[in-house]
Write a structure and sequence with these properties.
The protein has 257 residues and is an alpha/beta fold. The protein has 5 helices and 16 strands. The strands form 3 sheets. Strands 4-3-7-1-2-6-5 form a 7-stranded antiparallel beta sheet. It has a 7-stranded mixed beta sheet with strand order 11-10-9-8-12-13-16, sandwiched between helices. A hairpin with a 4-residue loop joins strand 1 and strand 2. The two termini are 29 Å apart.
């Protein structure tokens, strides 16, 4: 798939809560096709301390408006610098990068699981899945109730389920503790998952026990985005693979978990 290097215009900056924000980036030309699960890499030009590009899952795509949305959590100097961009600023990007989630069979029941900022790719994935199946369940987990964000938008594209460790929103506990995982997982045809590695490993274990096909989106540290710097390597049954170029989407059966 062709990658493009573009300086996109910040059309909108939406502050979601104290930690998270969304940048809507507009292309001056028609967008190339973006598949669910792919990411873009941003050159953080507003910071003198950030030298490497930062990768972000593509949160949403609007071909009619030629915009890409990225959901960003401010956790370090790169994301903090991006939070300072203003509407009208230009952002240097490379996209689309990486592979994509595989699509289910027509009408197949699917479960999307996002933990923390791992919810980011699940919105666009759900939208892509809508013409294929109407049985879309989206399980979103967070530590605190205040960390549960954008639930109304996810509810527009699927059946939303939630867990929080403090019990303030949805069921109390981890995503693996949700009643859906205990009572209905065996009815699911495919699981798509993104979030902290311990969470994804727990989901993978449940999927293996129930013999449910499962793909995960890995979030290894990435430097180049092209498989050159080798800082994002993960171990698979076929040897070491780069998450940025061979992934970020992997079948759990291929990972040495």
């Amino acid at each position: 798939m062709n990658k493009t290097v573009q300086r996109l215009v910040v059309e909108k900056k939406e502050i979601v809560n104290k930690d998270n924000f969304i940048l809507s980036l507009k292309s001056p030309v028609p967008l190339v096709e973006v598949q669910a699960g792919q990411f873009l890499s941003i050159n953080v030009e507003k910071s003198k301390d950030v030298f490497l590009r930062r990768p972000f899952s593509i949160h949403d795509v609007n071909y009619g408006n030629n915009t890409l949305d990225v959901l960003i959590k401010s956790v370090g100097p790169g994301s903090a610098a991006l939070k300072e961009v203003e509407v009208g600023d230009l952002v240097d990007t490379i996209f689309p990068l990486g592979n994509s989630f595989t699509m289910p069979n027509k009408g197949e029941k699917v479960l999307l699981v996002g933990g923390g900022v791992g919810i980011a790719p699940m919105l666009y994935l759900a939208k892509v899945l809508q013409p294929i199946t109407s049985d879309i369940n989206i399980l979103l987990g967070s530590r605190k109730g205040e960390d549960q964000i954008l639930l109304d938008r996810y509810a527009e594209v699927g059946n939303v389920l939630t867990t929080t460790e403090d019990g303030m929103v949805g069921e109390k506990g981890y995503v693996t503790d949700h009643s859906f995982m205990k009572e209905r997982l065996q009815d699911v045809g495919r699981i798509y998952c993104c979030g902290p590695e311990p969470m994804m490993k727990s989901i993978a274990k449940l999927a293996e026990e129930k013999q449910v096909y499962c793909e995960v989106s890995l979030e290894n540290m990435m430097g180049c985005g092209f498989g050159v710097c080798l800082c994002c390597v993960t171990d698979t049954h076929e040897g070491h693979k780069c998450v940025c170029s061979d992934g970020p989407i992997f079948n759990i059966a291929d990972l040495k978990w």
